[in-house]
Amino acid sequence: MILGRLGPVLQVIQRVAWVLLLLALPVTSFPYFPPAMGGEALVRPLSLYPLGVLIFLLVLPCLIRKPISKTVLTLVPFVLVAAASSLVSLLRGIEPSLGISVEARVLRGMFTLLIGCSFYLTMVVLHETVDDLRFSLRWIYAGGAIALLWGSIQAVNIAFPGAGLFAFLERAQSYISIRPLRPDRIAGLTYEPHWFAEQIILLLLPWSLAAILSGYSVFQRRWRWLTVEWFLVIWSVILLPFTFSRAGLMNLVILIMISVLLFRQRPRRDVEVRLPAGADRWRGLSPLQRRSLESILVLAVVILPIYVVGARNLFFARLWEYWRKPEANLQEYVSYLGFDARLVYAQAAFNTYLAYPILGVGLGNYAFYFEEMLPYRPIAEVPEVLLMVTPEPGRDRLITAKNLYLRLLAETGIVGAVTFMAFVIANLGCALYLWLSKHKEWVYWGTASLCGLLAFSLSALTFDSFVIPNMWVLFGLITAATRVMMSRSQVQMLV
After folding, report:
1. Which of 50, 219, 374, 488 could bond 20 through an S-S bridge, CB–CB 3.0 to 4.6 Å?
2. Domain containing 60: what range?
3. Class of residue 309 by CB neighbours under 10 A (exposed 0-12, middle 13-18, buried 19+)
């Protein structure tokens, strides 16, 4: 009786928590976190608060009452392998580093993985209908627009520097992120500029870009061909260069070029495309040639703001200035761009994998082996790495691989990497299933899923966190869309 009366109230709380979860996704390092919830970590998603509410009100009851999606089950082997690898590492007698024990590191590693899995599972359970999927996407756009707006104000400060404006931005940012705002790069609502670039590419662009490619929108209002998604894509492309994230901008260019080339809406054979007079040459081109030319044109449009904004930053301008040298080569180019430190992290992670190839060294334990696994090269040439291996009072943050693929190999071995990639491949199968549908709605979700998986495969080269919700939201929406489509198909077959 009491539960019956509380039902409507709980539904309202659940709906509010759902909205807050999606709106809060852009805030990745919220300052006000208790120690029990990771208050000493760099990654502190604000969305953890509404996530906790949804776990108790929605996810746990659904796990008891309803069957679990088969795609969700493909993640279970990886979690078990990660747990087994971490437990084995406790028997190796690893010495503490910077005052942090292996037990604490393993516990934090497993805790972050479980948080990521909770985001994924919640996104799957939340959506039972197409309207639910559209509802989530609208609020993801809303949260993304807030982040873009705040980033735009930061960009204004870069274009027109002012001590008063920057003081205001710096003070406001202190309530959003634990890291002070930089005067020369924008960070949005995240911890650092690269995180903001990755957030745009992985959380916002796949869905909005796919809407343009498939001619679909979750909003009914539009002005001719111009939709909210067009506005978000243009806004993102113009703003992202102000992050001055080299990896982020490379990923942006690759994502848009490949998406336009491969994932555009397939024209219907029963509809004749009318071309303007004088377009005989265009008509004579094959579909692949036309798409290639379109991709090159789009690429030029995307690169233009990158060049215009990047010319204001001498360090960032190295991307193209280097090739004016008469004796240019790729290896020196990588060093010139400042990627030496990331290469060292990657080589150390791979050496760790070679030393422990089956199960790795356990979640979070790569840091304990870093100095031992460093490549044979003068570390003094890489100041960032030299700083990391030099003890310093007050520096208690352990290093990470900064590459998800290599982190998986180093910390969970080949078994963990294979099981995680099996989960990714299962989502790829879902994406293709949606994309090959004859229904425009599911074609859109398939296109967005493929764009998202492409964005993930690129972003995973430069991030390695399990707790940042971006990739889990992506996987969750892919699984949820497939689940909704299959349930509708089964109902139609029964009818």
Report:
1. 50
2. 1-66
3. buried
